[in-house]
Specification:
This protein is mainly α.
């Protein structure tokens, strides 16, 4: 059953537009509200927040939707600190965590669509990953 529920949830956040994501959520809610009311209610209460990534450039979606950079960096730090537990002072453990973070930073990939950061910072509005300016240009051409 978990695989079916997981696939239904993934259909929500993998949708190419907010409208399709909302439809996918409605299907999810119809299928699972009777069996898992608290899970459906949890997603429903935070749905607007969960779908906020549609307000960013599509190039950024992969980065916005994942916590992997944070998890993988702290996994390295956690692994080392657990192994050396009791052998270090507070200062040395903080120094080690800092150096491990710096070391992990070297392997990070560049942000996809980093050229769009200026647009985000200027407050350009994005609809389903496309800026309003681009949408309006497309309408004028058509």
């Amino acid at each position: 059953m978990q695989a079916h529920v997981k696939a239904a949830v993934q259909e929500i956040w993998r949708s190419p537009s907010r409208e399709l994501a909302l439809r996918a959520f409605e299907r999810f809610a119809q299928m699972y509200r009777a069996k898992y009311p608290k899970a459906v209610e949890c997603i429903e209460s935070d749905l607007d927040i969960l779908l906020t990534f549609y307000d960013f450039p599509a190039e950024h979606w992969q980065h916005v939707r994942t916590t992997n950079p944070i998890e993988s960096t702290f996994a390295t730090v956690r692994l080392r600190t657990v192994k050396t537990r009791g052998c270090m002072s507070r200062g040395t453990i903080l120094s080690m965590a800092f150096k491990l973070g710096q070391s992990a930073e070297r392997g990070w990939l560049r942000l996809r669509g980093y050229r769009r950061l200026g647009d985000v910072m200027r407050g350009v509005k994005f609809i389903d990953g496309v800026s309003e300016e681009e949408i309006n240009k497309g309408r004028k051409v058509a």
